[in-house]
Amino acid sequence: CTNDFEEINENPNSPENVDPQFLLANVISVEANMNTYDQGFRLANYLDQFAASVEFERIDRYEMGSNSGYWNNIFRLQTDIRSMKELPGSNEAYVAVGDILRSYLFSQLTDIWGDVPYTEAIQALDGNFTPKYDTQESIYTHPETGILKVLERSATTLENTNATIKGDVMFQNDLDKWVRFANSLRLRYLMRISKRLSNYSEIQELADSCKLIESNAQNAVVPYLSTAPNQWPMFLAGLGLYQEHRMTKTVDSLLRLWNDPRVEVLYKPTQKSVNEGNPHYKGLLNGQSRETISSKGINLNDISLFGAMFRDVPDAVNGQYMQYAEVQFALAEAAERGYISQDPGPYYKEGIKANFDYLDVEFPEDYLSREAIALGEDNLTKILTQKWLSLINNGHEAWFNVRRTGIPNLKPGPDNLNDGRYPVRYLYPESEQATNRKNYEEAAARIGGDNINSEGWWEM
Amino acid sequence: YEAFVLDINGEPVAFALIQELETENHATTDKNGKFSFNTNSKNFTIRISSIGIQPVEIKIINGNFPEQIIVQRSYEALDEVIVTALGIEKERQSLVSSVTEIDSEKLTDVTAPNVVNSLAGQVAGVQITNGSSGVGSSSRIVIRGENSLGGSNQPLFVVDGVPINNEQITSDLVNNGALQEVDYGNGASEISPDDIASISVLKGAGSAALYGARAANGVILINTKRGKNNRGFGVSTNSSFTIETLLTLPDYQNVYGGGSNGEYAFENGIGAGINDGGISSYGPRLDQGLLIPQFDSPSVDINGNPVRGGDVIARTFPNGSFTEITPTPWVSRPDNVRDFFETGVTYQDNIAISSGWEEGSARLSYSSLRNEGILPNTDLKRDGISIRLEQELSQDFRINTFLNYINTRSGNRPNLGYGYENVMYGFNWTGRQTNISSLRDYWQAGQEGVQHFDFNYLWLTNPYLSLYENTNSFDKNRVLGNLSATYDITDKLSLKIRAGIDTYNDDREFRRAVSTNRNPQGTYREDNVNFEELNTDFLLSYADSFDENWNYTITAGGNRFDQHIKYQFAEASQLALPGIYTLANSATPLKGDSQNFEKRINSLYGTGNLSYKDQVYLDLTFRNDWSSTLPADNNSFAYYSAGFSYVISNMLEIPEAISFLKIRGSVASVGNDTDPYQNAQNFLFNQNYGSNFRVTNETVLKNINLKPERLNAYEAGLEAWFFDGRLQTDFSAYQNVSIDQIISRPISPTSGFLNYNVNGGEVRTRGFEAAISGEIIQAQDFSWKSSLNYSTYESEVTELPEGVTQFVTGTADVFGGSGGSNSVFYIAREGGKVGDMYGTGFVEIDGETLFNSNGLPVQDGTLKLLGNYNPDFIMGFNNSFSFKNFNLNILFDWRKGGTIVSRTKALGSTSGVLEETLEGRENGVVGDGVTNVGTPENPQYEPNTTPVPASRFYNNFYDRGNEASALYSASYVKLRQLSLYYSFSDKFVKSIGFQSLKLGFVGSNLLLFTENPHFDPELNALQGRNIVYGVEDMSYPSTRSFGMSLKTQF
Fold first, then answer.
1. ipTM of the predicted structure?
2. Which residues of chain B does A132 touch, with a Cβ-Cβ cutoff of 8 Å?
3. By CA distance, what is B949's nearest residue in A?
4. Nearest CA to CA, how far is A358 from chain B (Å)?
5. How would DSSP label each residue in A292-344?
6. Of A9, B211, B302, B478, which one is least surrounded by beta carbons within 10 A?
7. What is the per-residue pLDDT for B827?
8. B482-492 per-position pLDDT tens digit
């Protein structure tokens, strides 16, 4: 009389097998949202000094915490990628696209936390519940399993395959764009580890390849939509959360110096100045406590908030992976540093224009000839500062660049809780101490301690 | 002198003791009740006493000795029949494991709205914790500690031999979400105490072996009242009216108002004034004669009509500037939170009609409960009708049925947990100058239904809006009942067939008004829970004897258990039109889900009982279950138990002072299964991206190789009665070893999943229980009975799975905010205790907190042991006094030990509303600890002397992630129950046509003694869909309730 037990215990609520496209759509869109809103807008914009906190967002004062939600979710998406690659309906194109996304996600992990589980990660299905941590160096450069190698291999596969994919909400199943995205990511990561490189030929090859993201139309972005659940989350958030994000003194003084019209879409004029009929923008110094702001007599009504695109409409923002502008700025930097033979000027100009174009701001004719903009002196600072601005909202990418180059030179705020140091990583999630203690302790010792000042391999 | 002692039925009373009070002369009756007695006096008093009879004293005058002495069997007699597993009735002295019975009087003395609560303090080894949302919240009951690392550890509830559902199927809501948790109460709470004849608590796994897997944590056996035994017709009523007032409230400071840096002025509540976008309480000093613009200060709209300061929209000129606010006095409002609460009112009424006739009996009862909560606009209403029928259809065929229909409903249940939907959260961020009652008119002028009125528009929502507009209603219809037929095939063989049903439908509605902080566009959601459980069983019993000394009973039976749960919801997350709550009024695609869960268990079982005279009893049981939830080749598991009871006093000569002595012992081994659908990996639906369908993996890794759990239990007990039963003691010691537990253990997320369903671990629980009761004074007009129960246990993790050094069994959130570490981890380490909580705190040097040179503590991200949430012991102390027609009953309840991590403490200290944050406001706080005055390499520690401004210090010290700074002991002493009844004299009662009439004053939770000033440590927290332990999560105040009760019979 237990014959029907298997039937009874068959889950009617969810399937055991699905088409890989549904997992692909999930991974791409979930990560785009997390990277842009949870990571970019709510956390990294403070570290990048695009946003200053009025009171509660303690990350502005460098109380970093562990960012465990992102950690957990990245690994969860890695499980989805594994399923997508292994499902019966999969093919080599899904595998290659999956590997590109997988590489992207692991680079997020290692750039945010340092050494992380990589080669042994996502093996619970195989019985490994306590993966060891790989070094950042091997995660990027291992000749077989390293991110750089995997991206190269995936691009080659996609260039030669007849297989097709579905569910690609970023490139509408256009594999050529995936090839360009993979190559552009390689460029990003080669620049990331450039301090550790002695041979720049791969960068040169990429620069010459014509297989990078070549226009904003090829951007790796996923638009937010006008209806739930794909709306820009800040559109629905409580007012307090929005008002915690103020324009910073850093970005205010730079945009002022450049006389840059992009300020009009990125921020709003202060309420006070609007009331008085003389709209202007004003930033707040980062890393100040409520008491400091209060004791300085700062009128918060006279501090700018983020622009309308970030609050008043559900679909003006894109979920970010990578834009054309970043590729151009990377090449400009590579050229300026002499990694490649080309001239930095055209890349630099194209990068700036691409960002104006992306933000739909009219490009002032004299912009490139302005003293603070035109190349000549301090070229690296100019290139990297423009790059920094173009990365607003794009996860922690601007922070990675600042950590690597020190440009722009971001100074900790007066009430920072890190002894005046600029933090370079998040803490490992406490759950690792609880569930993977031995490997956690080994990795923490190796990176110089589980604290927010332990530098990664590529930044030293 | 010679005489017989007989009971009222004329049966002889053997072994009764006859004493002459004036001398030491005494005698004992033989088995015919006969005794002979010698004395020299002619005028004296004898006292006749024995186990199981009510002692009598007889004055003998002039040697006039009666031939027969008639005594009454006492209530707590040994041959008292106790209903045990499967509804089998047993004599008390034959019980082989610990069973405690509570009679209806104890349950209805102080009628608890949740019947589970009336067990608190009454039974050794039973621990009750309450939910924090007042009448209607769920109570959790744990018997003999937690055997299971991952499970709910809840006992099985059984009504008239048939299991019912006590789980609460919660809605899928989240802590700190736009829709926070709501507690809908535990299932058993819906049974009216007035319908209950008695409750037996079967504590040991041995008692439970026959009920199967769900009984591994004990059984609460509810026996419903039956109709009258004798012919006729009776009516009884029980009515009580109680009011609930606050028992606890956080200790707020009343010296500094809202603001920062000693400054505050309201302009628009989002930052245009001075600190009016902030919600901290480090503002200007109160009661200094200051005048400051506030949200309720008078102002005018742009046309000059009077409005309040907080009517910001009406006050805003087209150019964005505001009209003036007239400053008002900046004064403390010590009772602003207290006054927000209302007096709760609870009416509980029952009327029962009972009748008996030759072949049967019937009882019909109606119960009602009406509660208005202490939070404005919260309530609970319950109506229940029950019918119990017994009928003898022929001499050897009887049927028996109980049917109960219950409707429970509420217009609004309060939200729980961390987030502004819980008003206690809001009050933590409300300046002490705030006149909360002026928020009562909760729409802005001219903005009714569109924009709420508040003192801060960034972070909070007006608490009145939360309770009056953002309601969580439900309407639950439940039918539970059973029908059994008994057929005596021969004198010795009988067959019983029984079917039981428990089914309900629960409709829930959630409304969120436009302009609510986390639902600016408004939200409407409907949830529906459909539950059905069927139990069908048969039982064949054969009773016979070998000879006059040896009796035996053999019972064999089978059971089928079927459970089906359907849960669904639909949500309009953004309303198209404000104020209209229907799914059609949705501005975006509806969100929704439906889930079905089905489970079946087939069982066969048998028991055998053997007894020798009235002295030795032996019980054996065997059961086998087949569960649909386990893998096919591993879905069968067996239970065994064996027990004996040996009544020494019936067999051997023992000292006179000991009137009864029994030892008992039992061993049992029981199995357990798991939830449905744990054997295969599934994909979950995620909502679409545009028109693209999305799925994702579950976060739990399933396990096809799960084995049934096993619990091995050993118990030994001793019952000894002294002085003719006036002093009764009962001791039990037990050990439970739980092996192969199925737990969903948290694993490293880097492995790809958050939890893994696995068998593993061995937990050994050892405990001791004692119950002592005595009739301290028994006089004509006055008596005093006292009883004390004590229990203690310790659960140790004795073995972990191969290769695992520690094992996380669960987590609970304590601190909010993104990025920060904010969890308490329950970690099982080998040799560790179940209930050990780990979290982070500060670096310590020789037990002293280390401070930085800036005077702030140095945070330490290493997990350390914070404490254990289990108590060292719990004790109940009951005293009942009767004087003439008065009866006074007082129950105290003491819990010693255990740690609780408090979110109220952490948050209220950060914000500066709690009393203790006054320290250092003027001159700064110097943290208690050491600081390094040497170098990092050559540390030299000296006491910290660096003062830090109070707000900065408290913000840092109580910040998210420092779980160690918000710990309290969970010890408490409570005056749990008090009742004083007056029974009107028979004469008076009869003269007005009644049979009995009792009027009483009743109270519960009247006093609380605890070290922490802010909350009741007894309350538990609900997070997500689980109750979490050892964590206080913005709990509501607990209540003291008192009122009147009237019981009649006619």
1. 0.94
2. none
3. A291
4. 22
5. HHHHTT--GGGSPBBPGGGTT-SSSSEEEEE-HHHHHHHHHHHHHTTSSSS-H
6. B302
7. 87
8. 999 999 999 88
